[in-house]
Design brief:
The structure holds 2 protein chains of 2 kinds. Helix content of chain A is 74%, strand content 0%. Chain A is mainly alpha-helical. In chain A, α7 packs across α9. The two termini of chain A are 33 Å apart. Chain B has 3 domains: 46 residues, no CATH class; 34 residues; 99 residues, no CATH class. Helix content of chain B is 48%, strand content 4%. Chain B has 7 helices and 2 strands; from the N terminus they run αααααββαα. The chains are: A mainly alpha, B mainly alpha. Chains A and B meet through α2, α3, α6, α7 and α9 of A and α1, α3 and α4 of B.
């Protein structure tokens, strides 16, 4: 039904990984070029305002450092999303400790919207962002992985550490909330 | 605001917006959307979301690649290579052999001990039986009796076969103290012990699997 997402062709990824393991560094360049934009988008959608480049780099460094543990049960991109999500959550925990128990999520939501509002020019897109930002963190993750990255519920469940059914429920609840925010 | 009742089509709207459907499915969903206001509205929302989050921050691919760890050649790998796995298997084999050796030795020792103990104690807990030819002598024996029943009177009779030369204590052991017995019982017990000491020893040294009971003769030659 759903065809393979062209930029995340699994067989191509596996071939590139094999070439990189054999010592071909150009294969690493190809892998990074294929997946870095999606990882950057995902980082932004998770509320990462600054250091997106650094987060994406850390994700690749960690992934390539443990490439032997990649079993290809899921696609490489799903695995990279999982690693990036953990990195971002770890960063948030560290920031939260530094801020001495300040509610990071609230601060993130407000400042994130302000920052993104400067980028997004059109009013419709701004409203959409506002609607999506009102979702819970998990709903937002699931919703954007489904809509922006075209991941299946199974892949989303792997990324967020949930079940396929739970991912489906989160998506539909998020969609309902966004529509209510936009049209009601 | 309502949701379309066609769940299958609704599920495919996100894939349609993401452009991940094959051609046949895409045409089918597009046809449905053309005739369904709810799905058309939802698809429009999905496209707005994709548009709002389409802006991708620039990433420096070259800088990322420069920071990546170098692939480790196969023989030098600390983990995941052939040699460490083989060594791990060797460890498991060695551990299994050690366990087998230790287990076998333990069984041999246990078996040897049981063989040493069995001939002496094999009759210790066997209750006495009466024979019709012997006049039963009532001897208070508490060995093997449960707690609270140590004063139970048991009959020690003639078994019809010569008793083995085994320590009488093992055959007439009692768990209670001497204070629990009256004088008559103690005398009867001592008499039984003397009789056992005087009894002839069976010529065969082979252990008899049948328990042998003590012979108590009272008033008969």
């Amino acid at each position: 039904m759903a065809k393979d997402h062209e930029p995340t062709d699994d067989s191509t990824d596996l071939a590139l990984i094999a070439r990189w393991k054999a010592g071909d560094e150009r294969a690493a360049t190809s892998l990074v070029a294929r997946h870095a934009p999606a990882l950057a988008r995902f980082a932004v959608s998770l509320g990462q305002r600054a250091d997106v480049d650094e987060v994406v780099q850390d994700t690749f460094v960690r992934a390539f450092g443990s490439m032997d543990s990649f079993r290809a049960d899921s696609s490489l991109r799903t695995w990279l999303f999982t690693i990036e999500r953990r990195l971002i959550l770890d960063r948030r925990r560290s920031e939260r400790r530094r801020r001495d128990d300040t509610s990071v999520d609230d601060v993130d939501a407000a400042t994130e919207f302000d920052a993104l509002d400067e980028i997004v020019a059109e009013e419709a897109e701004s409203r959409v962002r506002r609607a999506v930002d009102q979702l819970s963190r998990l709903q937002k993750e699931v919703f954007l992985l489904r809509v922006n990255e075209g991941l299946s519920y199974k892949e989303i469940a792997e990324v967020v550490g949930s079940t396929e059914g739970a991912a489906r429920v989160h998506y539909h609840n998020a969609m309902r909330a966004v529509k209510e925010s936009l049209y009601v | 605001m309502f949701d379309c009742a066609n769940v299958e089509m609704r599920e495919l709207l996100a894939d349609l917006a993401a452009g991940t459907l094959d051609d046949a499915t895409r045409v089918r969903v597009e046809r449905h959307v053309a005739s369904c206001a709810e799905c058309a509205s939802e698809l429009e929302t999905l496209r707005l979301v994709r548009s709002a989050y389409a802006a991708t921050p620039t990433v420096d691919v070259r800088r990322i690649v420069a920071a990546l760890p170098k692939p480790v050649p196969f023989p030098q790998r600390a983990h995941g290579g052939g040699y460490p796995v083989k060594r791990w298997i060797d460890w498991r084999v060695a551990a299994a052999l050690t366990m087998i050796a230790v287990g076998g030795l333990s069984l041999a020792v246990a078996h040897r001990r049981s063989m040493e103990v069995l001939p002496r104690d094999s009759t210790a807990a066997v209750p006495s039986v009466d024979t019709p030819r012997a006049t039963p002598a009532k001897v208070a024996v508490a060995g093997g009796a449960p707690s609270g029943s140590h004063d139970t009177t048991r009959h020690v009779g003639q078994s019809g076969r010569p008793p083995e030369k085994s320590p009488p204590k093992a055959q007439l052991a009692f768990a209670g103290g001497m204070d629990d017995m009256d004088d008559a019982s103690i005398k009867a017990l001592l008499g039984a012990l003397e009789e056992m000491d005087r009894a002839p020893v069976a010529p065969s040294e082979e252990p008899d699997p049948t328990p042998v009971l003590p012979v108590i003769k009272t008033g008969q030659p």
